[in-house]
Every structure is written in C-alpha cells, then in structure tokens.
Specification:
This protein is of the alpha/beta class. The chain has one domain. The strands form two sheets. Strands 1, 2, 3, 4, 5, 6, 9, 10 and 11 form a nine-stranded mixed beta sheet that branches. The protein has a two-stranded antiparallel sheet with strand order 7-8. Helix 2 runs parallel beside helix 7 and helix 3 runs antiparallel to helix 4. The two termini are 37 Å apart.
C-alpha cells in the first residue's frame, strides 16, 4: 500500500507543479501621451530651461509595444508561459497611472482601478506597467546628461552648445534621446499583494556628427519611423532587463 501511495504521489507531482505555475496577465497604462522635452540653454548662462510638449496619442501603439516587450521577456524568463496581453484606452485608467507617480500607494490604487478588467482573465499574476517620474538621465557614449524631470515615454532633445570644436563631446554637440520611464509591478491577483516592482529609467541618445556645422538638428535628422524604432528599442531593452528581476520575486 505504501508503495502504491508513493507511486500516486509521484504521478501527481507534475500536476501540482502545473497547477502552481503562474499565469501572467500584462497591462500597460503608459502610452496615452508622448512627452517631448526640449532643453534650452540661455546664451552666456549655464541655467537650463526645458520646454515640455505633450502629444496625445490616438491609438495604443506604444502600449502595444510595451506589452509585446513584456510578453517576450516573460517567455524568455519562463519558457512555456503564455501571457495574456490586455489593452485599455480608458481615460480614467490612464489618469490613475499618471496620479500614481508621486504616491507611495500609487500602484495599489491603479490595481484597484484595473481589477475589474483583470479579474476574469484566469491569470494568477498581473504585470502592471505604469508611469514613473524621475530625473532626466539620458544615456550617452560618455555618461549621462539631462536636466529636469521625465515621465512616461517620449524624447529629450538637446540642441547643444553654440560653439564646438572637433573634440566636442555628445552633450555639447546636441542629441535626441528617446526615453522610457516606467514602473513595472508584479501583483498577485488572489490577494492583491504587490509582490515586486522595478523602476525603469531607460534612454538611448542619438548624436549628430560633431564635425558637422548644423547644431541642434538632432530632432530633424531622424524620420518619424526612425524615432518610433529607437523608442521601441529602448522599451524592449528595459523590459528584457527588468522583467526577469520582477518575476524572480514571485
């Protein structure tokens, strides 16, 4: 009898493991707006004045890029998993994501807002992507630069200095930096517990050739398709880095 019980226990073990395997739902509430921050330097002064332009996005293309990047990262971290990709363009949910940036309980508040959407998916966990606000830290070949604060996704444009030499560095020659400032959270749906979070502060600047005469044309030098491509690359790079750390804490 003991031998039979042992055999049954071994046969049931894979079923138990399968039952406990996480099933992820993924929802991004970042891509309703694109933030363009243009750094301006007053002549003869080291004081910076940033001009901020917010562009409303009519579709969910950015959020789709984010969820696809999360999906790819989850599949790499957990082979065999099949994430459930969600989408919502409800203004109240985007507002909740925006208002969560500066609150200690912000993610919990966003979860309560999206709970009706994820409750019927059959998922065990939610990977929730919301907006994060942080200091501008644009990645260049020789370090990080930037002034002011960034949030969500967009582009930071630096026109550079008024005069340059052949040894001018990236920051002095001007650049365009696509950025993704996001908070990736893992939430256990059975309890509503926030298991883990990762603040994403990603960027990848593109500088013009410092030997060229045109200063401040970094924005014009890239086509719209190239801008979207570079922003998507940043999103995918950061998802690949952050998601494994988020789900490892499960």
């Amino acid at each position: 009898m003991r031998h039979l019980i042992a055999i049954l226990a071994l046969a049931a073990a894979p079923l138990v493991a399968l039952a406990q395997a996480p099933k992820y739902a993924v929802l991004s509430l970042v891509g309703d707006k694109l933030l363009i921050v243009e750094r301006e330097m007053t002549t003869g002064s080291r004081l910076d004045k940033n001009e901020r332009t917010v562009v409303d996005l009519p579709d969910n293309s950015i959020d789709r890029a984010i969820t696809l990047a999360i999906d790819d990262a989850l599949r790499r971290a957990n082979p065999g998993t099949q994430p459930i990709l969600l989408a919502s363009q409800r203004a109240d949910l985007y507002a909740a994501s925006y208002n969560a940036m500066d609150r200690a309980d912000g993610v919990a508040r966003v979860y309560q807002a999206v709970k009706p959407i994820v409750g019927k998916t059959g998922a065990t966990h939610l990977v929730l992507v919301t907006k994060h606000r942080g200091r501008a830290m644009l990645r260049l070949r020789d370090g990080h630069v930037g002034t002011g604060f960034l949030e969500g996704v967009g582009f930071y444009v630096d026109h550079g200095t008024m005069s340059r030499g052949v040894d001018t560095n990236d920051a002095e020659s001007g650049f365009i930096g696509p950025f993704a400032y996001m908070n990736i959270s893992l939430i256990e749906l059975s309890s509503g517990r926030i298991v883990s979070q990762q603040h994403v502060v990603g960027s990848n600047a593109q500088s013009p050739n410092p030997r060229e005469r045109n200063v401040g044309n970094a924005w014009q030098r890239l086509s719209d398709d190239e801008k979207v491509k570079r922003l998507t690359e940043v999103i995918r790079e950061e998802a690949a880095r952050a998601v494994p750390m988020v789900v490892a804490a499960r």
